[in-house]
Amino acid sequence: MPSKIEYTKLDAIALDPLNPRLGRTAHSKDLAQDQIYDLMKDWSLEELATSFLESGFWPHEAVLCIEEKIGDKDLVVVEGNRRIAALMRLRKTYAGEETSRKWLEMIEGVPQPAGLFDDVPFIRYADRGEVDAFLGFRHVTGIKEWAPPEKAQFIAKLIDDKGLTYREVMRKIGSKTDTVERNYIAYRILVQMEETEGLDAKEVENRFSVLFLSLRSKNVQKFLGIEGKFGIEPKDVKNPVEDENLDKLKEFSLWLFGDQETAPIVPDSREVDRFARVLASTEGLDYLRSVRRPSLEKAFIIAGGDQEQVYDLISTAAYNLQEALSSIHLYKDDEKLLAISKRMIANADQIRKTLEIE
């Protein structure tokens, strides 16, 4: 456990190459420190830099570092990467290495604060495991949430690297067990998509929340053949979609996320439930598979998805009509009411003919 706040030079602290905010693609490239900085320097660092210039680096905002060797640095910041990147960019600005007008204007007339880059407050941890619970509470369930794929990646790391169960992760980060489970399964499906030949998964990570939400549906689970992957230990869910269902996974990915040539038919997460209804319909699936550029709206209608809506519309009309009958006789000479009633009678007659009601 950490004992106290320490101070060190900015040069002694490395940016974290495993920072979830960098994204999984960046993690796979084994980026150098200057490459990580280039990715981070536009992460809205201006407010942090302004705060440093006005108030210095408050000790209660100390970054969390682990003892890990990267190049000539012995500390890696695992919480507070934006603060360190802001200090780096601010120092480059004072050194004349920054060309951004915004950053140059920021320091104009402001002397370099004494000790800002030499006395950086930090708390030392022996390894990442000691910080996991804090990161989970802060960024998965807390006020500074990571983006959906970053949350899922963090959960998967706890499960795959440390062998934790869903319940153990729940206790560690303060989330619900079923949410942890769905995040993990969605993440493992994302990995499968990336590893499946002939499947373009470039947009999946950008719209990970759509994948996550879709897995709530039993229809989606049944289509992908993953019903049995819920409620079991995560060690048995490494590849949720079995080999015999990989062709369905390709279809699912194309319809939900599109590819370089085809736009997705599901524009956002609000349409996931309608899409799930289509997956459960033979007619709806036939339409999706046979039309080059299918429409979710048309597929939903073909799948009978608007049936409940028709029930509601007719039922509401019937109850409204019944209520109107109690006082309609009081206005039998009203011309506007007569016109409305004629239209209603014509519509009712059309319903009778369509439904063949005698």
UniProtKB/TrEMBL annotation:
InterPro entries referenced in this protein's UniProt entry, alphabetically: ParB/Sulfiredoxin_sf
Protein name, as recorded: ParB/Sulfiredoxin domain-containing protein
Origin species: Rhizorhabdus wittichii
